[in-house]
Amino acid sequence: MKRIPISRLALALLGGALFALLGTLGWQAEHLGQSDPPRAQLTASALTLPFALALFWLLEHARRKQALPRAEDGVFRTRRAFALLFLCYLPMFAVTFPGSFAYDVPFQLKQVFTGAYSTHHPLLHTLLLGGCIALGRLAGCVNAGAALYTLLQMALLALCFALTCASIARQCGARAARRSALFFALYPLHMMMAVNATKDALFSGCFALALSLCLEAVRARQPGRRLFTGACAALTLSMMLRNNMLYAVAALTVLLCLVLRRRERLLCAVCLLSMVLALGGQALLKAVTGAQSGDPCEMLSWPIQQLARARNLHEDRLTDDEKAAIDELMPGEAWRLYDPTISDPVKFEFDTQRLLGDLPRYVRVYLSVGAKCPKAYFDAVLMHTYSFLYPYTTYGVSGYYLQMGVTDAYYDGWYEGERIQSASLFPRVLASLSWRFGAQGAMQIPVIGWVFNMGLIVWVMFYLVLRAAYLGQRAAFGVMLLPVLLWGTFLLGPVMAGRYIYPFVCALPAMACRARPCAADPQENG
What letter does residue 523 receive in the DSSP assignment? Predict the structure, then answer.
């Protein structure tokens, strides 16, 4: 019997411990509403070995499959894939016509129509969305402008996915690319996000393309200028559509310098260049629009939740000065609005300017409250993020998994004239989707619900990263850390919702494809 390297066994054991711990803490969060550290340690210790054995079996199966020879499997046609993807998104366009305009859309349109721009939302997306709506308004039909934006987003998303599949074809063969195209075409979340006017849709398409091109760059024997140019463009657009991506790429660049060999480090230069271009593009748009900087409270969801939980549950442990400080940051006793799974109720009332006005004092209060209520702080983070950590059985987050239709509530006080109106060709289907999928995350539907389980998607992503390390794919493993780093920034967000999981869904085909041992000749991708 061939001896198994100790490094592989250690990796399987480490992965098993990770999944066991996340599973245990996630179960406690879902079923108990808080953590039980002693029981969590005991349970995770007992589950580590079974999880490690299961993971080891999966990884060994992947290693044996990797060694099997693969025959040529034809040619992948990018244009045909684009047409297929776009056509598959059209039925959802009819269901949601003129599209789903919820979440932040009214706030972004307010910027366009009042001229008071802010970097709180990506300016690139705000201008694209607002430009289409303004064009429709000028033509006398706001819904026409909304439909124009939705169709444009569908086309751009289909293009990103088709180019991602073309990259997969060059790395892994046409069969893997065709399977990826079917996944992008038929997986229901893609159809729903294609018509959803949130920045997450376009960002996710650019993110999937950037990841695949970066993987191709480190796998190809002689990556060309065209490949690096495409990777730079996709990375730049991704960062201009979400600030989270900028932080993830910055961290990835440092890690890649440590992981990649000298001939592969050109990708680090591409990442640096893309960061410069993204920051320059954002600065240019900010200067042209006169945009003000956004409220940094979006990055304070964890401290807000922690202080609010401690104030609600452990008032007897706090001094009068600590309680007064929390009341100042959350005026009107906004801490009473604390919701464990979403920071928005308290965050909307949070006084960021007061915080910045006397930051040292409030930092001292935050640390002193944490020293008295460490479990409250830990539980606040756990309850806020567990749906991204653990394959839950019930979607228990207060916010919508994916909001459908049109939000009309935020136009009052600043907008006069025709508003975007839902004109669904299949209103009953839209109503059913809004409830069964949008509000419930499809978890009430047996088997199908697991396809949309956020925790399960993250676990699959973790497995694919571990698989790259197990197979000794050093460079690919380094690039695959990008989704993990991005995931880490999403944990700091105000809520765990379906639109936040979408970038990682889009990344799965590029991460899952079985690359050839060496780069083959480029396939025809016309």
Answer: P
- Please report the DSSP string for 244-266 in residue order: HHHHHHHHHHHHHHHHS-GGGTH
Q: What is the mean pLDDT of each run of 10 residues along the chain (526 residues)?
A: 82 96 96 95 96 96 82 86 98 96 87 89 95 93 95 98 97 94 96 95 98 94 90 97 95 90 86 97 96 83 96 95 95 95 94 93 96 96 95 90 83 77 93 90 87 95 96 93 96 92 97 71 39
Place of tokens 């690319």: 177
Please name which of 403, 427, 426 lies closest in space to residue 495, comparing C-alpha atoms.
403
Q: What is d(CA 387, CA 121) in angstroms, rounded to the nearest whole number?
A: 24
- The answer to whether 494 touches 148, Cβ cutoff 8 Å, is no
pLDDT computed for residue 504 by the predictor:
97
Can you tell me the distance from the alpha carbon of 83 to that of 186, in angstroms, rounded to the nearest whole number? 13
Q: What share of the chain is helix, strand, coil (3-state, %, to 5)?
A: 70, 0, 25
> Could you write out the DSSP letters of every residue in 205-244?
HHHHHHHHHHHHHHHSSS--HHHHHHHHHHHHHHHHH-HH
**300 in Cβ contact with 493 (< 8 Å):** no
Closest by alpha carbon to 267, among 248, 288, 253, 279?
253
Give the predicted TM-score (pTM) of the model: 0.94
Q: Can you state the angle between helices 142-172 and 498-512, rounded to 10 degrees? A: 30
What are the φ and ψ backbone dihedral angles of 217, each rounded to 5 degrees?
A: -65, -35
In whole angstroms, what is the distance from residue 256 CA to residue 231 CA?
Answer: 15
Task: Fill in the amino acid letter for 426.
Answer: F
SS (H, E, C) 49-70: HHHHHHHHHHHHHHHHHHHCCC
Contact at 8 Å (CB) between 318 and 369?
yes
How is 252-317 classified by DSSP, letter by letter? HHHHHHHHS-GGGTHHHHHHHHHHHHHHHHHHHHHHHHTPBPPPGGGGGHHHHHHHHHHHHH-GGG
> CB–CB of 399/344 below 8 Å?
yes
Bridge partner residues of 339 (DSSP): 342
